[in-house]
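Quick start: what a row looks like.
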Amino acid sequence: MSAVTEDGVQRASAAEVGDRGREGEGEERDEDFEEDEEDGFEFGDAEEAMQCVEMAGTDAGALRAQANDYEALAARKRKALAEEQPQREGSKKPRQDELSEAEAATMFDQLMEGFGLRRKRRSKDGKKRGRKKGTKNKGSPEVIKKLGDATLLFAEERFNEAIPILHEIVRIAPNLPDSYYLLGSIYSETGELDKAINFLMLAAYVSPKDASLWKKLIPLAKKKEDASLARHCILKAMRADPEDVDLKYLCGDMYRNLRDYQKAAEIYEQIVRIYPANIAVRKVAAQMYRECGQIDKAINLLEDYVNTQTTNIDWSVLDLLISLYLRNNALDEALKKIEKARLQLRPQQKLPIQLQAKEVICHAYLGDVKHAEIFLRDVHLEPSKDNIDVIKELASNLETMGLHEYAVKFYLMIGNVANRNDGSLRVDHKEMGSSYVKVAECYMVLGDKRNAISYFYKAIQSMKDNIHIRLTLSSLLIDEGKTDEAVTLLSPPQNPELQSANAPDQQKPWWCDGKVKMQLAKTYYDKGNLEDFVDTIFHPILETLNVEYANRKVKSMKKLPNTVLHERVKVLGEPRPDSVFQGLRPIASPGELQKANRAKKLIEKRAASNEELKADDSRRTKQVPPIPGLLTNMEHHQLVLNLCRTLALLQRYWDALQIINRTLKLGNDVLTHDSKEELRSLGAQIAYRAPDPSHGFKYVRYVVQQHPYSLSAWNSYYKVISRIEDRFPQHFKYLLRTREEKPDCIPPIIISGHRFAAISQHQSAARDYLEAYKLDPENPLINLCVGTALISLTLGFRLQNKNQCIVQAFAFLYRYLRLCGDSQEALYNIARAYHHIGLNTLAAVYYEKALAVEEEDHPIPKLPYEAGSRAQDDMRTGYCDVRREAAFNLHLIYKKSGATDLARRILKTYCTV
């Protein structure tokens, strides 16, 4: 029975609901080892029996339709009985056209179950169960003769002639199981498995105490791979014949394969009570108790047997018992049993290798390791799979105890045993590789990295696709200063096609794993290979961020999709359209059955209300990113920061902004404040340097929002905005909002004036500058801006009082000159203003004053993200000196007035190198 004996991932339910007529799949009654509530079924008359025979041979559609008709009739009868009940209670005598309770129950039983069977229920008044004597239909001579004829025809394989005779027998004697049994046997011989099961089930239900009928059904259920039906028949057969040990074997194996170890152990223990000398079943029962955590029961089962043995010790039983002692931490008892077994040995006989290893483990737990040394020195093992498993268990226990030196010796012993193989023993390469890994890990704990590296290399030869080994080995190589070897180990192979061909299906190659790429990228970064670092990790990180972003957009549906509900309903089992018998309890845990029943009701409710029935249920599901936990793991944050810095350094600004945008959007809750500030600072720097600064506008805006009264922050903001050629609505809206929220903040007012001046709206520019002047009249820059705006305004055509405006402009400019302390720059600006309006004589005077002043160089102003730049970049020769510009403008005035020699001398003095 492949569906019963091979389906080991499911669990047998604690309730067996196999009897027809029990409604409500969610019942949790444990009746695996209880008797039925009814003795069986019997037909009321021949018409009912013939109707059942027709249903057993009909198709699924007709069967379901007929069952639905019976259910509808039963529902109407229940309603009618409920409506007439009050009238019956008020009258002393029932009317002739009314039904008594017994008649109603009889009609209800006739309508139940879909094919006319009536159950014989337990009596409620405690009467003796079973039929009355003399009521069983033993069959008339006519029936016996027809049955004999049908049997002969069956033996001669004349099935077509036997079937009508058996139908006639059913009509005459509907409660005779032999006719149904012969019909089932006929259909079994002809290969009609479903019909054979139907008729044999009829025979078994008509005569439920006949265990042979249930046994006949078990192989058919196995052949059909119907696990629920097979379990149902096995349990029915066990109830019919509780002393049948073969049935107990079948039941125990069934629960064992279904991983219901508790019930399997109980069944096997029943067999042990019947046959105490059956060692194999005793061992299996102990193993089942061990699997379900009942170590004491397992020990008692084996102790009862071991204590009675004086000769011919079964070493496997003793080995299992000692393993249980070790698991229960009963070391003294285990050593006593081993010593007692040693005393019973014959001369020249030694303890089996399994018990010697268990003895070493017990002494090692007690702090005595000399037995391990004796074992290593004196024991010589033959190459066999059992011996290798024993040494592996011994080495694993020593490693768990912290005795890594001895664990290394025993792990190496596995390789020595395998190397002595003469070819009869096939050792798996992965098994050898795992032992090498254990040796390397022990050497790592002992601090011997050199030997650890050598054994990791041996392991990687057998397990090329093992990512954990590659990562651990690469870390060891980096610690030892062998960075090139680590890079070679983590880099894709020369011929990736050959390696990927050997990789398992549905599994990506090891070099595509996110952990490998991160380790390789970190190695490149530490080594200084920035381009290789970016090429290795950029695409995995970007893909991971995109996948995480898409996963967050997937809505978490409160309503389960129909696909999930249908998947849960599958636990209840597939319907048996060709079977008369429905409602067998599916094989599942009570929790799974509860979920399945809720899902079934929900599907029916949705179908009734037509809700989401026709909707496309193919919703997007969350994908697995290449680097899981990229943002949740704090160790990975530094890798993302290093990638962004490197991309900015390599002038891959758009790639850097992609990473920064996704990281800040997804990691707002997990990133530290310093990390977020650094990413935003990088974004602002990229916005200033990138060809299209509009993508990084939000980062410089963030800097200004954090420091609204910082001139350097507004300076960086304005540098980014001034590089955007087209009108930028976000900038204008932000300026207006800032001016409304912070009316005392001067930088946005000045920037607004600059914006109007750039588009030649000098009147609006002057208005903004004057508003800033009211807030800070002693600011030289504001006075300069007001003066220049008024001068530009006078050059227009609409101004009426130009002279007055010029006078006002120069008033602000001279105030600016006073605030600057007659600096070279202020003198130059005054001269430039006179030159601009055509007063060349005054302009020449101030140009000459500017030429007479020497200005020292001052540090170049820095943007906020440039605070850590080098000192040599802070100074630039001639950065603050404007004498060259003043000389050039002065030579233009001289040249225009005809003083060419004077103009030539000015150029030669100040403008030549």
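That is the whole record. The two ends are 102 Å apart (CA to CA). The chain has a mean pLDDT of 77.
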